[in-house]
Every structure is written in C-alpha cells, then in structure tokens.
C-alpha cells in the first residue's frame, strides 16, 4: 500500500543519514548532493514518484536547503524541546523521543502509525470528512487537505495531553513582569512562573529565596497573576521553614529546630495558628501558653510576643489493599506491633481505594491480619516493615481468600467479632495509650501513679460508658471540662472519654491526666490523618466538623463497639448509661431530631422547606450535638465508606454541606439509617423553648441566630448548675497549672466567645479569621 511505501522510504532515509552523516566529514555541498542521490534511489526502490522528488529538490539552491535545515533544527530545539542530535518521531503533533541504544525498526513505525490512527486520528478523520466545507473551493478538498486538517486537530488535542515534565521559558515575553537575578559564575539557571496571590505561589516564593541563598543561581521569576479577581484568594500569613546548620549547636548535641517568625502583625485581628507539614507527619503543639485558635495580640499586654513549639509526634504508615480481582476487601482488619506485642494498633481497610492508615514511629514493625473473621477468611503472611525515614511508608498489599472461603462475605457476620474482645481488653487500651504517649513529652511519674490509683475507678461498677468529644481553643476546652464533670456526677458506671488530639492545646493535655486521676475516669487521645485522596476542607471549623463523622469506623480501636458523641458545650443531667444501653433497632447511628416547640424560630428551620423538605420525604432532620454510634454495626454495614462516598460527591460544591457533620448524616440517612432518639435527650433553648426544659436529659448551649447571645452569658443564664461546674473546673485547672483562677479566666479573651471554631450549627454565618 501507499502507507507501507512511505514507511519503507522514511526508514531507509533515516538509516542512511544515521550511518553516513552523523559524523560531519564532508563539505556541505557534497553532503547535500549525496542526500539527494539517496532520496532518488530510495524513491525508486519503494516505487515512489522519483521525478516528483527530483523536480522539487532541484527547484531550491543548496544554500536555501541548508538554511531550511537550520531553521528546522532551531524549531525542533526551541519549540519542541528536542536536544541537538536526539532522535524522535513526530506523528499528529505527538513527540516520541527515541533514546540512544533503543532500536526503532520499520515495524515499530508501522505499529505507531496504526495505533495513532485507531486510538486518536480515526475518529477525528471521520468527523472532518462529514463536515460541509462551505466557501472552500471543491478543488482544494483533496485527500491532502483532509490529511492536513486531521493532523492540525490531532496536534492541538495532543497539546492538552502533553506531560508537564519539560517546559521552555525562552518563548515567554516577560519584559515587564519578570524579576531577574543574574549570577555570572553560576552553572544553574532557574526559571519560575508564579501567581503571587495563589496558595502555591505563597509556598514557592520562600523556596526560591532559599535556593537563591544556598546555591546562588541565576534566576528569572515571571509574575503571572489572574487578571481579575472578585476577592483576594489569600487570607493568611505564611512562612516556609527549612532546617539549617544554625539549628544544631556547635558546643553540644542539642537541636534548636527550625523557626518561623511573623512580625508587624495586626493587633486587633483574631488570628489562628496552623502548621502545614508533609503528609506522612503528625505534628502537634507541645508548648503554647496562649490560645492558638484565638490569637488577639492586643491582649498580650506589653510583651506583644507570642510563641509556640510544635513537635513531630508520629509518622504515618499508609497503604492500599486489594484482592486479586482488584476489588478492595472492605472491612478487612490489620494489626501492627512487635514480635513481643503483635497488637499495638489496628485499623480496617476502606472500600475507598482500599485505603488504610496507622500511626507509627521509626523502627521495625510487623503487620498482619487481625484475629477473627479477617484471619479466618484471608491469607496474608506477616509483613516486616521498616520505618527508616521521615517520609513514612506507603504499602500496596494484595490478599486472597482461603480455599473454600471464596464466596463468604467478610462483613456478613452477625457478631462482627473481627477483633476478639478478651478480658484483658482494658489493658490493651492502656498499652496503646502508653505506646502513643512515648512520642510526646509527658509526666512519667503521673502515669505510674494513675496506673496504681484505682480506688475511684473501682468504686464505679458496670459496663464502661464511652464518650467521644472534640474541642478547639481555650474557651471550648473550658466547656469540655464542665461537660466531663456533668457526666461523672450523674453516673455510677465507669466512664472513658475519647478526645480528638489534633486540636487540643498543650495546656489541656497537661491538665487532663491530673483530672482523670482526681475524678476517676479513663481517657484516650485519638487522631486520624486526613487521607490525601479525600476532598479536603480548608477552614479549620469545617475540618473539625468532618472529624466528627467521616472517620468513625477507623479513628477508634476495633475493639470499641459503641460510643456516644457529646458536644463540648453540653451539660448532662442524667445517667448516660441509659443512652449507652439503648436499643438502636439495628441502626448504626442515633440522633435527636430538632425541636419544633419554639415557633419563633420557624423562619430558621431550613429543613422544613425547599431542597431539604423534598429530600427528607417526611424523615426528621437531626441535630449533631449528641449522637450514639453502634461501631460494630457501623463497620459491619460499611457506613463509613458510604458516608465518605456521599461526602466526596457533595463537598466539591461550595454551596453543599454548609453544616457538614449535621447535613451529611441527614442527607445520607436513606442509605445509612438513623434511629431517632426521644426528644428529651437533647434540649436547646433556641429551638425547643422553655416548656420542655424540665424534661431535658442534656442541655446544649446552641447559638441563637436571632439574639446571637455570647456563649458564656447564655450558659450562666440557661443552666443554673453551670456556674458551680465552671468554678470547680477553673479551681482545679488553676491548682494544677500553679496559677490563680483570675489568670485562668483572663487567658480566654472575650472575643473568642464568638470567634472560636466550634461544631455548632444554629447559625451558618461565621466570622472570617486570618490564619498564620
């Protein structure tokens, strides 16, 4: 065929050029003459029109042809990025570089042409042939015309697919928008194109500064901002820090650590301190006198300086687990430990990409299937894992079912006994806490005393009530201590509190061990790093909301079978054991519906109209200040996976999930069913009114969108016992920290009442805060 003739011709010409002209040993005229002769010879051998080639080549002078070759060479280098002397094949705008040593035969060229046509060009060519070319002379509509149009369209489309590993800045005209730093002696040149008002530009700028200081390159920075903005995209102050030799002492073995400084900051703006770290790092503040969520510099007095120390607490071991058919074995459970203690931490595999995650420290660990149904159904040899760098570790694991178990469902067990609950389960949790605490600074003597002092705990009888909560900022940590006291005063059963560690202040983490010892309760600090593949929230308040609902199946030890979430600003007036023991009728979640009593709030009940009314179809809209999670049922039904899928779908729309942790379970209750608790389990003045207050089993200090009354003021007015609880908690905190009560109160600025991030959903409007 004609195509085969052309391919044979090109192949012969390329081989001739490679063999005869890679070494420039002849004069230019002789070179051109020999090339012409070879073209005529190859055309004759492949049955191509020799006379046409002769007529075309002899119409140009030798000088014109050589200039054309030079121009083509400049185009290949300047526009296509091909190095001089390199070999490449260009088809329909796509460039395939042939590396030295690689064979590229006639058959390869034929295969490339065939695949390009079948995969990309064929469909474009068919569409172009159907186009009515109005206004084009029919004599021009030749096969060459269609071929050229097809090539141009294919080339344009391939530009969109071209990888970005290589860029050519020579073509940029940046006379008025470039910053040039010339270094005559440098062998390194850096070109950078930056949008100065983008988050990426904010991070790249200090990195370029560090490179400039360390290697003194020549540099050109082209500023490329968006031409028009409705709002400034950056609302934070940012510093990029790298370790330097100054961080290491020259006289001893101490390490000072890298530091970031913020100067000339606004005094009257409420700021929040956040830290941006590599994905495998779990970092937390370990020294901070002031509330890092509500920094108001004008309240610091004459000092006007605030400092905080952060510490790398742990690294992440993450992975993806698949069966041989590439389906994730959702619910499969792993344990991680040492040879002596094989079960230190555990987790389960999500259906979302087969993802799993564990917290580790540097060292050698053993990963294996958890005893129970996971080990009964699947095979996986114990894996030895070395954490030998600060990059953490990402594993890809393939498992297969045991022979004869191929058709059994992992999540079909009624008892959901994936991790055997033994009599030493309590000790296992203690071991986990001790292991995790080795990563952070702490009072070892206090831990020893806590292990020995069991008098108060032994006085409490019955099954342990597990309470889960989250707080951020000193104000809500103050509320959290009051909630703890209100729970303990109303029950004779053992209580264990679970707190999300990510947002607790160093002060609270210093006080809570003493409080547990004093009042006879257990506690555990838990955390889960936001997966990279899951759409991430940017506002700290919304991240906290997400932690209340998105990771319930993986944030707790697999041995925990039920937990109650209680808002930090809630006051409990009954024995929570009653709620803990309640039959949820097979539902994984139990929430209290919003009250309808207070008719003054009808205008704010958005779930009674529009989208929510249509979506709920008669189901109630529940409040998320108090809820029960049957973790066994939650994991067995893959409720966590379902909620994450719904979240991923909705969260990319900024108008969706305005009250994230509340909207998400209410929206998904058609697939993740909710058991509606009796109304008295959660009373809130704003929505319920005073008529039902006497029957309230818990009182939530929810915001009132009409009055916007400050939280502390409302607490003292609504809940008489709140004042006594607050005084008791403040006196205890002052005694532990060695401060007086007035200093504790002054540590919470008045402005933080309205600005502190807190999972509360009665008023979706929030005051924006700047971030460090």
From TrEMBL:
GO terms for molecular function: UDP-glucose:glycoprotein glucosyltransferase activity; unfolded protein binding. Belongs to the glycosyltransferase 8 family. The lineage of its organism: Eukaryota, Viridiplantae, Streptophyta, Embryophyta, Tracheophyta. Its cofactor is Ca(2+). CDD domains: GT8_HUGT1_C_like. Residues 465-731 form the Glucosyltransferase 24 catalytic domain. This is Glucosyltransferase 24 catalytic domain-containing protein. Keywords: Transferase. One of its GO terms (biological process) is protein N-linked glycosylation via asparagine. It holds the Pfam family Thioredoxin_15. Residues 755-772 have a biased composition (Basic and acidic residues). InterPro entries: Glyco_transf_24 (IPR040497), Nucleotide-diphossugar_trans (IPR029044), UDP-g_GGtrans (IPR009448), UGGT_TRXL_4 (IPR040525). The keyword Lipid biosynthesis does not apply. It comes from the Eukaryota. GO terms for cellular component: endoplasmic reticulum. SUPFAM superfamilies: Nucleotide-diphospho-sugar transferases. Residues 34-158 form the UDP-glucose:glycoprotein glucosyltransferase thioredoxin-like domain. Residues 746-772 are annotated as: Disordered. Pathway: Protein modification; protein glycosylation.
């Amino acid at each position: 065929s004609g195509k085969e003739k052309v391919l044979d011709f090109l192949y012969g010409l390329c081989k001739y050029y490679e063999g005869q002209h890679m070494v420039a040993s002849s004069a230019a005229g002789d070179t051109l003459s020999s090339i012409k002769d070879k073209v005529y010879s190859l055309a004759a051998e492949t049955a191509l029109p020799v006379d046409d080639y002769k007529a075309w080549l002899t119409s140009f002078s030798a000088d014109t042809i050589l200039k054309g070759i030079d121009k083509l060479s400049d185009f290949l280098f300047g526009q296509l990025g091909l190095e001089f002397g390199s070999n490449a094949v260009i088809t329909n705008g796509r460039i395939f570089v042939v590396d030295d040593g690689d064979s590229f035969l006639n058959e390869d060229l034929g295969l490339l042409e065939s695949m390009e046509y079948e995969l990309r060009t064929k469909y474009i060519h068919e569409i172009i042939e159907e186009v009515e070319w109005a206004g084009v002379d029919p004599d021009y509509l030749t096969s060459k015309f269609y071929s050229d149009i097809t090539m141009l369209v294919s080339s344009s489309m391939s530009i969109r697919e071209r990888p970005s590993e290589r860029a050519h800045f020579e073509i940029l005209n940046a006379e008025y928008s470039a910053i040039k730093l010339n270094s005559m002696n440098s062998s390194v040149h850096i070109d950078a194109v930056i949008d100065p008002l983008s988050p990426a530009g904010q991070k790249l700028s200090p990195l370029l500064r560090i490179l400039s200081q360390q290697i003194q390159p020549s540099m050109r920075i082209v500023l490329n901002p968006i031409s028009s903005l409705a709002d400034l995209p950056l609302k934070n102050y940012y510093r990029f820090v790298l370790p330097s030799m100054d961080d290491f002492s020259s006289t001893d073995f101490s390490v000072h650590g890298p530091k970031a400084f913020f100067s000339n900051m606004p005094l009257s703006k409420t700021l929040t301190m956040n830290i941006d770290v590599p994905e495998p790092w779990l970092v937390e503040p370990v020294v901070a006198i002031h509330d890092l969520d509500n920094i108001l510099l004008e309240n610091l007095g004459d000092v006007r300086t605030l400092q905080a120390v952060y510490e790398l607490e742990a690294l992440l071991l993450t992975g993806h687990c698949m069966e041989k058919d590439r389906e994730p074995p959702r619910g499969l459970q792993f344990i991680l430990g040492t040879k002596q203690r094989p079960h230190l931490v555990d987790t389960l595999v999500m259906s979302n990409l087969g993802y799993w995650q564990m917290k580790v420290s540097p060292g050698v660990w053993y990963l294996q299937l958890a005893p129970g149904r996971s080990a009964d159904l699947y095979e996986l040899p114990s894996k030895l894992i070395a954490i030998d760098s600060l990059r953490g570790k990402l594993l890809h694991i393939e498992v297969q079912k045991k022979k004869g178990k191929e058709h059994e469902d992992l999540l079909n067990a009624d008892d959901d006994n994936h991790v055997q609950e033994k009599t030493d389960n309590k000790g296992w949790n203690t071991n986990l806490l001790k292991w995790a605490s080795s990563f952070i600074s702490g009072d070892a003597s206090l831990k020893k005393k806590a292990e020995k002092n069991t008098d108060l705990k032994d006085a409490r009888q019955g099954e342990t009530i597990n309470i889960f909560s989250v707080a951020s900022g000193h104000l809500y940590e103050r509320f959290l201590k009051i909630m703890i006291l209100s729970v303990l005063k109303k029950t004779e059963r053992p209580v264990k509190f679970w707190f999300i560690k990510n947002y607790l202040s160093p002060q609270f983490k210093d006080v809570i061990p003493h409080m547990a010892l004093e009042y006879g309760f257990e506690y555990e600090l838990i955390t889960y790093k936001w997966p990279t593949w899951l759409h991430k929230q940017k506002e700290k308040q919304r991240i906290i909301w997400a932690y209340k609902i998105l990771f319930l199946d993986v944030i707790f030890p697999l041995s925990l079978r039920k937990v109650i979430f209680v808002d930090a600003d809630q006051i409990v007036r009954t024995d929570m054991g009653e709620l803990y023991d309640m039959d949820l009728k097979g539902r994984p979640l139990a929430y209290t519906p919003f009250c309808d009593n207070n008719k003054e709030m009808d205008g704010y009940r958005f779930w009674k109209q529009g989208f929510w009314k249509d979506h709920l179809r008669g189901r109630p809209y529940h409040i998320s200040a108090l809820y029960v999670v049957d973790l066994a049922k939650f994991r067995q039904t893959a409720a966590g996976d379902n909620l994450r899928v719904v979240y991923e779908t909705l969260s990319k729309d900024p108008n969706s999930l305005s009250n994230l942790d509340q909207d998400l379970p209410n929206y998904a209750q058609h697939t993740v069913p909710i058991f509606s608790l009796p109304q008295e389990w959660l009373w809130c003045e704003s929505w319920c009114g005073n008529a039902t207050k006497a029957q309230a089993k818990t009182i939530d200090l929810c915001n009132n969108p009409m009055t916007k009354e400050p939280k502390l003021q409302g607490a003292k007015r609504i809940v008489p016992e709140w004042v006594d609880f607050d005084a008791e908690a403040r006196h205890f905190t002052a005694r532990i920290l060695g401060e007086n009560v007035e200093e504790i109160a002054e540590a919470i600025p008045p402005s933080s009442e309205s600005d502190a991030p807190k999972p509360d959903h009665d008023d979706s409007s929030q005051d924006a805060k700047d971030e460090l």
